[in-house]
From TrEMBL:
One of its GO terms (molecular function) is carbohydrate binding. It comes from Mucilaginibacter ginsenosidivorans. CDD domains: CBM9_like_2 (cd09618). SUPFAM superfamilies: CBD9-like. This is Carbohydrate binding family 9 domain-containing protein. GO terms for biological process: carbohydrate catabolic process. Signal peptide: none annotated. Residues 4-158 form the Carbohydrate-binding domain. It comes from the Bacteria.
């Protein structure tokens, strides 16, 4: 702060309180200064302390949970469109946070970029300083006003604050409420912005179930990021490898439909919202995890970014190879999406997705498939009104008619009220070969009503009653199933929460279903089932080094049965080096014969050790009684340079009782981010 550049820089202070109340100035003082040169945007932040005691952080690992850390983060919207942007920050231990912003303020923290930061702690404050290369963000030459906001979370005072005021019902990332960063001249642009990210990998694996000897592999490949303009980026990949990606968290599956797991592979994440935010959570015309998880990716290219303030583009072409082990033929995947800003913060989007089978395997006859779609996304200036209207059509050989999707929703979200209504129609022949649409042939109506109350005094921060319902009909508008829940939600000023819900279920099965997923027998098509349940969810305050989230669900189940599910997460941290978590799920099903009594247990202890801001060790063990599998995943990561890593990953799957190994794999991987 004694350097002339900081002394001459303007400061931002006088933060506004967001929580527990949004009607006053922040009690915890924060001062921000920013400056820049030809290559970097610089920021320094003084985070003053109001109460004595140690800082509260999970660890020094990047992309921590916002609500569990003393932290400072900031949000920038280089196009001042108030719909998408970037976020950077750190917790009080120096753990970095970076991500992209989409849909008006949702953050995708899987995005990883090259930037620099440091944190230093003092008895009365902690100081965060960062350097953001202009090459790491996307912006348009000539736009001299950017949207910006700063956010501070102080757990000891339970105060969340922001520089530009944000209503308490919204996250501080909400881009509808940003202030303005005014440049004294056009932001600098680089004559060359090319990054080459090669990798080298060596590994050994053995499949004990086939009885084959251990196999060794040596692989080389990499990515390239080429900025065609400061706002338009081209990603290229050749023979990519994703062995260092976090393992999926297993769940007990009692659902009739496929489960969803998020994308974590870096190649698919740049401006990823253009692709994965098209549609709804259960109607995704494009789902990148359909590509390359069970077959090799030979090469691919992605073009993403802003053409100007009003137009965004995303295009992708990926070629995969044959997978004889999984009986999947080689295919070419092409996607293009356009987004046009309209009104103040709304947009119109178009998307085309195509899958062409380019390989052949004996006995495999996969069909080509295409989908075309359009949607309108509504977002009012003050973010109170949001909505969507969407239409999709698929094209698949031998499937004609009933291949449309029509869906829409509208939401009103004020301080005291949330009103929501969603409608969906998915034709029985709609096929999204590269999407995630677990259910077809239905009409759905989903209302939500929430009323919140905010006491002025006492330990309760807010409490409210919520009604939700999902009504499903077949294409002839005959009701097939519905789930309705009436809940009461209490949030204390220390941020702990209690939710109590009464749930009513009705199902008229449209296909055979085994309610235990053990393949014993199946309930008949057309059979009707009604039952009620009680659910209690308790989440502890995030300030404690010992935290927990526990949930109990008890009540009826299919065919006059009974279900008891106990689930939760218990955590303990030794700040800022060790974070220990234990995830668990116990399900007890009691059904008449031929199903009988069934019990499932899932236990997942996870240990994160952060030796420094750049040296991590993680061990995740998952015992899944339903799948009769014990999974061990151990990962060592050394970030020896910004966005450059050495990984050592060991994974194992085995039968738990008696212990019998199924597969084992050890991989060593090197990556380097090289800016040209």
């Amino acid at each position: 702060m004694d350097e002339p550049a900081w002394q001459n820089a303007d400061s931002a202070a006088n933060f506004h309180m967001v929580l527990p109340m949004d009607t006053s100035m922040a009690k915890v003082k924060t001062v921000v200064r920013m400056t820049y040169d030809q290559n970097n945007l610089y920021i320094i932040v003084i985070n003053y302390k109001l109460l004595r005691g140690p800082y509260m952080v999970e660890s020094m690992k990047r992309d921590w949970a916002f609500q569990k850390n003393d932290n400072f983060i900031f949000f920038i919207d280089p196009f001042d469109a108030r719909t998408d942007g970037f976020t950077f920050g750190a917790n009080a231990a120096g753990g970095q946070w970076d991500g992209t912003l989409y849909a008006g303020g949702s953050a995708d923290l899987n995005w990883d970029q090259k930037w620099y930061s440091a944190v230093k702690n003092y008895p009365d404050k902690w100081v965060f300083e960062a350097s953001i290369p202009f090459k790491s963000i996307r912006y348009k030459k000539g736009i001299k006003e950017w949207g910006i906001n700063f956010s501070r979370n102080d757990l000891k005072t339970t105060e969340k604050s922001s520089w530009a005021p944000v209503p308490r019902q919204f996250p501080t990332a909400a881009l509808a409420f940003t202030g303005t960063l005014v440049w004294d001249e056009d932001p600098p642009t680089s004559s060359s912005n090319i990054s080459i990210i090669p990798y080298a990998l060596a590994g050994v694996s053995k499949d004990y179930q086939t009885g084959n000897s251990a196999s060794f592999k040596r692989e080389f490949g990499g990515d390239a990021k080429i900025s065609l303009t400061p706002s338009l980026n081209l990603d290229l990949t050749v023979h990519p490898d994703f062995s260092q990606v976090d393992v999926d968290q297993q769940v007990v599956n009692l659902d009739r439909y496929e489960l969803f797991f998020p994308e974590k592979r870096q190649f698919f994440l740049e401006s990823g919202d253009l692709f994965y935010n098209f549609g709804y959570s259960d109607i995704r015309p494009f789902f990148s995890r359909r590509i390359g998880l069970n077959q090799p990716i030979d090469f691919g290219a992605r073009l993403t970014g802003q053409l100007n303030k009003n137009w965004r583009i995303g295009a992708m072409d990926i070629q995969t190879g044959n997978s004889t082990d999984n009986n999947i033929e080689a295919a070419n995947y092409g996607v293009i999406t356009l987004q046009r800003r309209v009104l103040d913060r709304s947009n119109i989007g178009l998307m085309f997705i195509n899958k062409d089978i380019t390989g052949s395997l004996p006995g495999v006859n996969a069909a080509n498939n295409s989908t075309i779609g359009a949607e309108f996304n509504l977002a009012s200036r003050n973010n109170v009104w949001t909505g969507k209207a969407m239409a999709l059509k698929s094209f698949t050989a031998d499937k004609n008619g009933h291949d449309w999707v029509l869906a829409d929703h509208i939401q009103y979200f004020s301080r005291h009220w949330q009103l929501y209504l969603q409608e969906e129609y998915v034709g029985k022949n709609y096929t999204a070969a590269v999407g995630y649409v677990p259910r077809v042939g239905y009409v759905k109506i989903s209302p939500l009503l929430l009323r919140n109350f905010f006491p002025k005094k006492g330990p309760i921060l807010s409490h409210g009653i919520q009604f939700t319902s999902n009504y499903f009909f077949n294409e002839n508008f005959k009701r097939t199933d519905n789930e309705s829940a009436l809940s009461y939600i209490i949030t204390l000023r220390n941020r702990s929460t209690l939710t109590v819900s009464g749930i009513n279920d009705y199902v008229a099965l449209q296909q055979k279903f085994d309610p235990t997923n053990t393949h014993r027998d199946s309930l008949a098509i057309g059979s009707q089932h009604r039952y009620n349940s009680l659910d209690i969810l308790l989440v502890s305050k995030p300030q404690s080094v010992f935290t927990y989230q526990v949930e109990a669900l008890t009540g009826g189940y299919y065919d006059n049965g009974h279900r008891l599910t106990l689930s939760g997460t218990i955590g303990y941290r030794i700040q800022p080096y060790v974070n220990i978590a234990l995830n668990g799920n116990y399900t007890d099903l009691r059904l008449p014969q031929p199903y009988g009594d069934t019990r499932f247990t899932l236990v997942g202890p996870k240990v994160d050790v952060t030796f420094t801001n750049n040296l991590y060790f993680t061990t995740y063990v998952q015992y899944n009684d339903q799948q009769k599998n014990l999974n061990v995943n151990t990962r060592f990561q050394w970030r020896y340079a910004p966005a450059s890593d050495i990984f050592i990953v060991y994974s194992e799957n085995s039968m738990p009782s008696p212990y019998t190994p199924k597969t084992r794999q050890l991989v060593i991987k090197w990556t380097y981010w090289w800016n040209i």
